[in-house]
Sequence to fold (675 residues):
Amino acid sequence: MSQTAAVLLTIFTCLVGTLSVAAEDLTVLGDKLDGVAPPDMVRAYLLGKAHAALDRRKDACEKLKTPEDIAAYQKRIREFFVEQLGGFPERTPLDARVVERMDRDGYRIEKVIYQSQPRLYVTALLYLPDAKPPYPGVLVPCGHSGNGKANEPYQRACILLAKNGMAALCYDPIEQGERCQLLDGQGKPVLGGTQAHSMVGVGSILLGRNTATFRVWDGIRGIDYLASREEIDPKRIGCTGNSGGGTLTAYLMALDERIACAAPSCYLTSLGRLMDTIGPQDAEQNIHAQIAFGMDHADYVHMRAAKPTLMCTATRDFFDIGGSWDTFREAKRLYGRLGFPERVDLVENDAEHGFNSPLRVAAVRWMRRWLLGVDDAITEPDFPILTDQEATCTPRGQVMLLDGARSTYDLNLELESQLAEKRKKFWKETAPADAMAEVRRITGIRKLADLPEPKVEKAGQLPREGYRVEKLILKPESGIALPALAFVPETKNGDAYLYLNAEGKQADAAPGGPIEKLVKAGNVVLAVDLRGVGETQPAGKEHAYDDLLGKDWRDVSLAYMLDTSYLAMRAEDVLVCARFLATYEAGAAPNRVHLASTGLVGPPALHAAALEPRCFASVLLTRCLANWSDLLRAPLAKQQYVHTVHGALKCYDLPDLLGTLPADKVTVSEAVSVR
Fold:
């Protein structure tokens, strides 16, 4: 440990708790930044980039005029989609078994358990019509219902399909129904639904996959099961689902060419309208880099053109109906260019979000038209449905209580263990410069020389005994303002500290606190709120995700779809601030810049130091996450979403970066292990 780092560490460890800020007003920003409230700054910045990217995509789509153009476009988008999901596993035996059969009026139900991957069990209900086989089969992915396949609207949709001559397979998604992945000591779910999907997403992102990877593969294997049944015609496969099931229907119909007819419900809108209204949703609905690449909701329809596709929508849905019509008009034009405009349609029900009777009837009519060749006006009568208990397939109500069952967390951890060996070999055999170039490629963090000089504005000054506090606003790029406090001693020693705290620049700024001790030793200190920290931290919306993922989870998701990350953006902020500090209040020679970070800003600080080590005379990381791989072993670790970088664990973990820094220049204090 260097002498400088030791002095600073002593200051940190001697301080008990966080000192309260004095009565001085240390706020830097006003109520508005270019008309935007500071907590909304990052979101507004990202939305601007998103709309620009979506406009470019729209222009490109309008140039698709010929079948050849469209075919090339479909291939490019589909390949991108699969790549962002991390690819799919090999097909393994389904080992499907029917555990119970129930006869009903005009149809029968079979309870099925199959394995989408070895020992990853899927529970499903297969509804079979009282009709002469072979007949069509329709996959029905569930929406985000706690009881999964037992949910009333999905049962009614499946019964209606069966009563109209088609088989229906409705299966539990992970974290719903009988497929909750984490159970307590009494076999009860610890977490479920969209919250659990997003927690699966944290580790999945680091591995270069997505919660959707598991969800899509479960559906593809469900189609495999339908196709394996001798009663079902494998060339007449349909798919319909609502809400989260609409998401999966959209994905599956785009990726699995066996789906001849599709009717996604209450999901398809446009990403532009989605981002402007409710914003990003749970993990499987956010595909890495999709906005930057140019993959909008309409592309799920485009990828399957010109196969029959019905968009089922609701006027008062939280998935914006205006965006739905925009997507439909775009799809209608593309289908028309292929000569089949009648194969894409939209039905709008004047209702709120939900798979209600009019939408179920519309979906079944669509399936009859294209899978049975019958175009008639069926209706939905009343009929009895199963209770949750009657719909249960497993002996104890959860697949994770089956002998040898594995969860998606287990599969992620298995992949991480394989990647750990590859990382070890990579860092042993690769030249340091080449290894760091790969880190830069994965993160997208630009070289310091490529980062523009920040615009700097002074926002006031406060006198203190022996030094002054200057309020500064650093603008590293258009739309981003970093509020900072510069502590300038009367007598300077040539050293300067870039002081970062996840609790905000004011956390240690009170008289008598850690920053003052540094200043009174002759050091210039620049305490900065990186974007999304302190004054620009999102307010959150009291959503259940706020506690699990952090108040900034929507912005993190939007950045993810824009092919960047909070970590990368903040690392660049660190570099810009360090370069500014090197000359700020400097004498004949530049200041020697020391980097000190506390809390959740540690990983971006570490990346900045590892990629541009010459910027820093020393580095102190206090309460920094020890490594990413721990997150795969602690699936309930909170507030870690902001750290994720897509596919990072394919190449490196945080200790690999730490190992590139000279041991005498870096100090780690109270490293955070989430195991």
